[in-house]
Automatic annotation (TrEMBL):
Keywords: ATP-binding, Carbohydrate metabolism, Kinase, Metal-binding, Nucleotide-binding, Transferase, Zinc. GO terms for molecular function: ATP binding; metal ion binding; N-acetylglucosamine kinase activity. The keyword Disulfide bond does not apply. InterPro entries: ATPase_NBD, ROK, ROK_cs. It comes from Candidatus Rhodobacter oscarellae. PANTHER family: N-ACETYL-D-GLUCOSAMINE KINASE (PTHR18964:SF162), ROK (REPRESSOR, ORF, KINASE) FAMILY (PTHR18964). This is N-acetylglucosamine kinase.
């Protein structure tokens, strides 16, 4: 048995995961984002008193050498070696994995990516994330950032649109993440149209063929599709699984797929982008599977 946690900026979900990766959810609590001691205590309170190992999927980039985390949504864990600290608290193995990587590994093991040699999963939400599984093995990279396709320079090559100059949460200027996450989409619409709309309303207006929303979404798909084409050319995946809050908008994933397939090096006849759900169970299963692989 494994005690697993899926931790985001708003909530912590805990569960027990058995040998066949079946899970039983145990608790949902608010994430203590500002106080590190409170954060550690929350994990300890729901990890039980046995000696079962602990697997954690979390919204952070983890350095594979030092174990130190960077997180925009959970400030108290940035700069901390969370796995080592929790292992000291609990007296048993603790494994921590980036949430996007856990999501994609889960899909590759037991979801829509099962049976595919190369699975690329992307998250379209508040931010833009991603991860790659090659022949069943999760690609981590030298610094833990493999698959993070949202942190390169944004460009509107097809439309030639003038893009707003925005600083990304990572510290760089003009990242794809800063222009195509939910807040980035809102900023892009304000820049292009002069109107303020939240991302949900904007996507609904686009689905209703509103001209201003359509103009913004054309630029949005240009930026997003171009960046995604670069990543697809690099990894050449069998499938691109798309999750996150923005991906639920009517027509967005098919539109992105159409944009992408026009711009990749080797055109695909069949759809490449497939919508999927991202829920806590994906993080719980993915983190557990990866921990078991690492422990042998």
């Amino acid at each position: 048995m494994t005690i697993a946690f899926d931790i985001g900026g708003s909530k912590i979900v805990s569960a027990e995961v058995d040998a066949s990766l079946q899970l039983e959810e145990k608790a949902r609590i608010a994430t203590p984002t500002e106080d590190y001691d409170s954060f550690r205590q929350a994990i300890a309170a729901h990890a039980g008193t046995g000696d079962d190992p602990v697997a954690i999927s979390i919204a952070a980039v983890i350095d594979p050498v030092t174990g130190i985390l960077r997180s925009a949504n959970i400030p108290c864990i940035s700069g901390r070696a969370l796995a080592a600290d929790l292992q000291q608290d609990l007296g048993r193995p603790v494994h921590v994995l980036n949430d996007a990587k856990a999501f994609v590994l889960s899909e590759a093991k037991v979801g829509l990516g099962r049976g595919h040699a190369t699975v690329f999963g992307i998250i379209l939400g508040t931010g833009i994330g991603g991860a790659v599984v090659l022949n069943g093995q999760l690609l981590i990279g030298a610094t833990g950032s493999a698959g993070e396709w949202g942190h390169g320079p944004a460009a509107a090559v097809r439309s030639g649109a003038d893009l707003p100059l925005v600083r990304c949460g990572c510290g760089q200027m003009q990242c794809v993440d800063a222009l195509t996450g939910a807040r980035g989409l809102e900023n892009l619409h304000r820049h292009l149209s002069g109107a303020s709309l939240d991302s949900v309303s904007l996507l609904q207006s686009w689905a209703q063929q509103d001209p201003a929303a359509a103009a913004t979404m054309d630029v949005y798909l240009d930026v997003l599709g171009g960046a995604l084409a670069n990543a697809v050319n690099m990894f050449d995946p069998d499938i691109v699984l798309v999750g996150g809050g923005l991906s639920k908008a009517d027509g967005l994933v098919p539109a992105l797929d159409q944009e992408l397939r026009k711009r990749v090096l080797n055109p695909r006849k069949e759809p490449l982008c497939i919508a999927t759900e991202i829920g806590p169970e994906k993080g719980l299963i993915g983190a557990t599977a990866h921990m078991r692989e690492q422990l042998g």
